């Protein structure tokens, strides 16, 4: 803002100089030409040496004055020329708080102007240029496939949202994996004035699969070629971005460059900043044909309507077919074909200043694109090395990227005041539910948490699952926060089957988890673990929401509902699969109970059999779970009977029963009203009983709780009286809801509670 103001002051000062200096000079000269009230002519024809008033001194003064006049006129001419150049160079963005439109930085349309733009940098100039209307929607297209690219898209979108002041419409060409991840993410993100449309990338494979491609992006790296055919026919223009892009400015500035296209210009591109297309990187290096250094396609401005009229589809196909006869394959995916087309048709391209795509691959000329931090617009990590790329200022670029990587996405849920937004049913329902709550209620925060929509990123890491042929597979389901991360490796060693985990993390913690997982040989060797990030929001730990997220995204017919601080016995996975068949879980409503034990020792020689566990129980190394603080929670399991049992046995529900069970995937969800500590599992087991599930204890199964520091939520429960009062209120309301839903059969829960 200060830069803009300084630019205006300079412009004004220069203008005043041009206008007033000549006037003042001539007034001075004119006044100086009078002596004794009579005009004195400066003309040499009128001033003769024989004049009595003429002296040698006055002659010298007059000559000196004439020289000064000529100097002033020359200075004015130079000033006028500089002002003219400044106006033609193009304005910087206008950030007036009360302005409904704002002007954008001028692009350049040819190589000479581009060089001038690079030298000039991003300096703020004021002038009349096309503006982007305040509420004009900006369209952005991104090709995204797989788990890793989905994470990259989130960082890109964060950088765009951080700077944006316009409604956005993202067109995501995504495979099934990316669509599932990103659809859930944006649905739960609920960012105002942002619309998302998906296009099936798998359906487009046949359009480009005939092109051999050596680039690491694979077949998806060619799909930008078919955007004219893929995107809606009424969409006239779009900004196309790679997933490894970071914005350092408002994307509306780039959108405004469309106004500068002239004639048949339909592609806005930045010159490639490496020597790749010059063909001198190594001996016998033979790149695809390109105009000069060629162009990089990490950032593209596409005039779709004109491209369609030019028959772009036919144009690029014919070019690709011709070049492939000699080149055999592409090395840089779509970029090679774009450049080959431009080589034949240079009039198609509008060359963008290189700060719109500062390419951070090794050995590039990217440092010529900026002189200062304020010059940066778009950073492109277009090297397979990504953040490890070599660049003089790589630390600065890395820190900028990490800023958005770890930035709290919840803060980007900003309204665009004055811009009408499309009606969002989910958002409207949420507002209606919240408006019905009494903010003066002492338990308001508890009730509000039930309706809080937490941003959710499914499958944060790569996930692969091969369904079991016998349809008996079981997924271990659990939830955790950052302070239980150390349990992951141990659980993976004890349970070889699929796992579904919901992690409650901040954006910064999610990145810490990513680094931890990528540095763990145990975790990286397991591809059947689904990690689902639920981002932090609010003051309570949403334990049952987390369980529901983990339950909802399992790939097996059965699930083992566990907790992260329990280690299952070795071989439990195979034992449960056999039990599923033995007890006909597919056709009966059963909940198979895995008896729970605990140890107070941080270092435990884990029992390898039931006999060994019983021996440790007798020696006092192990205990039945919570027998000393919450006996009722697991007493109905009947541990005395379990000690000698050799076959499964049935037990009845009792008040406060909360065992760990194996059920079919269609079992009811956990009740979200219970957050933090208290009654979160009890309520779920009560509902299973209300739905007439039969509780069956497995005689040769067990799990052991490992010791850890008390959670923050249990500390709040113990120290905060109002917390306990609200929990009691929620319990009563839940029981009343059960009675209304299940009728007479649910009355026993009220009776049991009163007798407990």
TrEMBL record:
One of its GO terms (cellular component) is Golgi membrane. The chain crosses the membrane at residues 12-31. The keyword Iron does not apply. It catalyses: 3-O-{beta-D-GlcA-(1->[3)-alpha-D-Xyl-(1->3)-beta-D-GlcA-(1->](n)-4)-beta-D-Xyl-(1->4)-Rib-ol-P-Rib-ol-P-3-beta-D-GalNAc-(1->3)-beta-D-GlcNAc-(1->4)-O-6-P-alpha-D-Man}-L-Thr-[protein] + UDP-alpha-D-xylose = 3-O-{(1->[3)-alpha-D-Xyl-(1->3)-beta-D-GlcA-(1->](n+1)-4)-beta-D-Xyl-(1->4)-Rib-ol-P-Rib-ol-P-3-beta-D-GalNAc-(1->3)-beta-D-GlcNAc-(1->4)-O-6-P-alpha-D-Man}-L-Thr-[protein] + UDP + H(+); 3-O-[beta-D-GlcA-(1->3)-beta-D-Xyl-(1->4)-Rib-ol-P-Rib-ol-P-3-beta-D-GalNAc-(1->3)-beta-D-GlcNAc-(1->4)-(O-6-P-alpha-D-Man)]-Thr-[protein] + UDP-alpha-D-xylose = 3-O-[alpha-D-Xyl-(1->3)-beta-D-GlcA-(1->4)-beta-D-Xyl-(1->4)-Rib-ol-P-Rib-ol-P-3-beta-D-GalNAc-(1->3)-beta-D-GlcNAc-(1->4)-(O-6-P-alpha-D-Man)]-Thr-[protein] + UDP + H(+); 3-O-{(1->[3)-alpha-D-Xyl-(1->3)-beta-D-GlcA-(1->](n)-4)-beta-D-Xyl-(1->4)-Rib-ol-P-Rib-ol-P-3-beta-D-GalNAc-(1->3)-beta-D-GlcNAc-(1->4)-O-6-P-alpha-D-Man}-L-Thr-[protein] + UDP-alpha-D-glucuronate = 3-O-{beta-D-GlcA-(1->[3)-alpha-D-Xyl-(1->3)-beta-D-GlcA-(1->](n)-4)-beta-D-Xyl-(1->4)-Rib-ol-P-Rib-ol-P-3-beta-D-GalNAc-(1->3)-beta-D-GlcNAc-(1->4)-O-6-P-alpha-D-Man}-L-Thr-[protein] + UDP + H(+). Its main location: Golgi. Keywords: Glycoprotein, Glycosyltransferase, Golgi apparatus, Membrane, Multifunctional enzyme, Signal-anchor, Transferase, Transmembrane, Transmembrane helix. GO terms for biological process: protein O-linked glycosylation via mannose. In the N-terminal section; belongs to the glycosyltransferase 8 family. This is LARG1 glucuronyltransferase. It comes from Chaetorhynchus papuensis (pygmy drongo).
């Amino acid at each position: 803002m200060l830069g803009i103001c300084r630019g205006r002051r300079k412009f004004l000062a220069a203008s005043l100089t041009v206008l007033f200096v000549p006037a003042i000079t001539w007034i001075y000269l004119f006044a100086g030409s009078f002596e004794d009230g009579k005009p004195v002519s400066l003309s040499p024809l009128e001033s003769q040496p024989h004049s009595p008033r003429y002296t040698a001194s006055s002659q010298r003064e007059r000559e000196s004055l004439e020289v000064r006049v000529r100097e002033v006129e020359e200075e004015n001419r130079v000033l006028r020329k500089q002002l003219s150049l400044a106006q033609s160079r193009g304005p910087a963005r206008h950030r007036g708080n009360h302005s409904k439109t704002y002007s954008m930085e001028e692009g350049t349309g040819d190589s000479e102007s581009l060089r001038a733009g690079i030298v000039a940098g991003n300096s703020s100039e004021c002038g009349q240029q096309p503006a982007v209307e305040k509420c004009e929607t900006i369209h952005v297209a991104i090709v995204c496939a797989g788990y890793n690219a989905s994470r990259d898209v989130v960082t890109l979108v964060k950088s765009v949202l951080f700077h944006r002041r316009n409604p956005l419409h993202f067109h995501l060409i995504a495979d099934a994996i990316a669509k599932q991840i990103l659809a859930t993410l944006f649905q739960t993100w609920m960012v105002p004035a942002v619309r998302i449309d998906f296009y099936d990338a798998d359906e487009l494979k046949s359009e480009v699969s005939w092109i051999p491609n050596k680039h690491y992006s694979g077949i998806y790296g060619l799909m930008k070629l078919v955007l004219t055919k893929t995107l809606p026919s009424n969409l006239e223009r779009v900004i196309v971005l790679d997933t490894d892009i970071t914005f350092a400015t408002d994307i509306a500035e780039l959108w405004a460059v469309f106004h500068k296209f002239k004639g048949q210009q339909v592609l806005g591109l930045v010159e490639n900043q490496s020597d790749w297309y010059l063909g001198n990187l190594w001996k016998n290096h033979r790149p695809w044909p390109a105009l000069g250094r060629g162009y990089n396609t990490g950032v593209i401005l596409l005039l779709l309507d004109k491209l369609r009229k030019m028959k772009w589809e036919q144009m690029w196909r014919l070019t690709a077919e011709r070049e492939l006869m000699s080149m055999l394959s592409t090395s840089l995916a779509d970029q090679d074909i774009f450049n080959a087309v431009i080589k034949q048709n240079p009039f198609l391209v509008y060359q963008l200043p290189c700060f719109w795509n500062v390419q951070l691959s090794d050995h590039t000329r990217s440092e010529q694109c900026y002189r200062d931090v304020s010059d940066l617009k778009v950073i492109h990590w277009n090297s397979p090395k990504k953040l490890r790329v070599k660049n003089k200022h790589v630390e600065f670029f890395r820190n900028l990227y990490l800023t958005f990587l770890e930035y709290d996405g919840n803060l980007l849920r900003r309204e665009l005041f004055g811009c009408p937004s499309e009606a969002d049913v989910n958002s409207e329902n949420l507002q209606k539910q919240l408006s019905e709550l009494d903010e003066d209620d002492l338990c308001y925060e508890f009730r509000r948490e039930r309706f809080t929509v937490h941003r959710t990123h499914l499958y944060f890491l790569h996930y692969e699952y091969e369904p079991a042929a016998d349809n008996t597979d079981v997924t271990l389901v659990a939830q955790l926060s950052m302070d239980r991360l150390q349990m992951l490796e141990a659980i993976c060693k004890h349970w070889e089957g699929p796992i579904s985990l919901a992690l409650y993390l901040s954006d910064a913690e999610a990145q810490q988890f990513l680094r931890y997982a990528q540095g763990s040989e145990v975790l990286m060797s397991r591809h059947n673990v689904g990690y689902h990030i639920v981002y932090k929001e609010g003051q309570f730990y949403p334990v049952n929401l987390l369980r529901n997220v983990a339950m909802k995204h399992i790939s097996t017919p059965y699930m083992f509902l566990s907790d992260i601080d329990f280690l299952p016995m070795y071989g439990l996975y195979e034992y449960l699969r056999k039990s599923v068949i033995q007890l006909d879980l597919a056709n009966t409503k059963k909940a198979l109970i895995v008896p729970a034990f605990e140890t107070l020792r941080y270092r435990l020689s884990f029992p390898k059999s039931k006999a060994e566990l019983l021996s440790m129980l007798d020696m006092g190394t192990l205990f039945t779970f919570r027998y000393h603080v919450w006996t009722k929670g697991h007493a109905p399991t009947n541990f005395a009977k379990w000690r000698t049992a050799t076959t499964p046995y049935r037990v009845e529900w009792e008040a406060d029963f909360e065992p760990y069970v194996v059920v079919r995937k269609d079992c009811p969800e956990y009740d979200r009203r219970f957050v933090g500590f208290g009654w979160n599992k009890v309520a779920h087991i009560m509902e299973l009983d209300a739905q007439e599930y039969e509780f069956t204890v497995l005689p040769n199964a067990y799990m052991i709780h490992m010791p850890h520091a008390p959670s923050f939520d249990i500390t709040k429960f113990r120290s905060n009286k109002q917390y306990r009062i609200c929990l009691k209120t929620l319990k009563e309301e839940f029981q009343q809801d059960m009675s209304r839903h299940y009728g007479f059969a649910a009355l026993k829960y009220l009776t049991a509670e009163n007798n407990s």
